[in-house]
Amino acid sequence: MVVALLTGDVPDEGMHELTGPGLLTFGEAASMIGEATGREVRYVPVSGPQYAAAPAEYGVPEAEAGFLAEPFSTLLDGHNAVTTDGVKRALGREPKEFGAYVRETAKSSVWRV
User: Fold this and answer.
1) What is the DSSP string of the chain?
2) Is residue 113 part of a domain?
3) What's the mean per-residue pLDDT of the chain?
4) What is the CATH number of the domain that holds 64?
């Protein structure tokens, strides 16, 4: 997809929001990856304040860390959870279901340790 956009093989129609055909949580995605790879993969949620604390541990000023945490919290609250037709508009095909992607990718060596 990105290659097609960068090489001009996709009409410039402004912003392309790319999603799969369905919504899933990070926990569901981690579970699918774990199942396909036979490894323990889990999602551990992090709150906005916990996220802000991490940069602070590396010397980022508290105000900056809070500024970074605000969009993190907003993006993960679920109010932006929608699917789009960006893949179909850009590539002329339906997006791949995440589970199918995971099963295909697990067959490659990319997730092997």
Assistant:
1) -HHHHHTT-S---S------SS---HHHHHHHHHHHHTS--------HHHHHHHHHHTT--HHHHHHHHHHHHHHTSSTT----SHHHHHHSSPPPPHHHHHHHHHTSSTT--
2) no
3) 86
4) 3.90.25.10
Q: Which residue has the tokens 């960006």?
A: 86
DSSP state, 110?
Answer: T
Q: How many domains does the chain have?
A: 1
Q: Which domain holds residue 74?
A: 17-106
Q: Look at the alpha carbons of 24, 30, 31, 35 in this order and tell me if their dihedral is positive or negative.
A: positive
Please write the tens of the pLDDT for every residue from 41-94: 999 998 888 888 888 889 999 889 888 888 877 777 788 889 999 888 888 899
Q: Is residue 4 part of a domain?
A: no
**111 occurs within a structural domain:** no
Task: Decide: 19 and 89 in contact? Cβ < 8 Å.
Answer: no
Q: Residues 4-7: contacts with CB within 8 Å, 24+ apart?
A: 4/90, 4/91, 5/90
Considering the domain boundaries, does residue 42 fall inside one?
yes
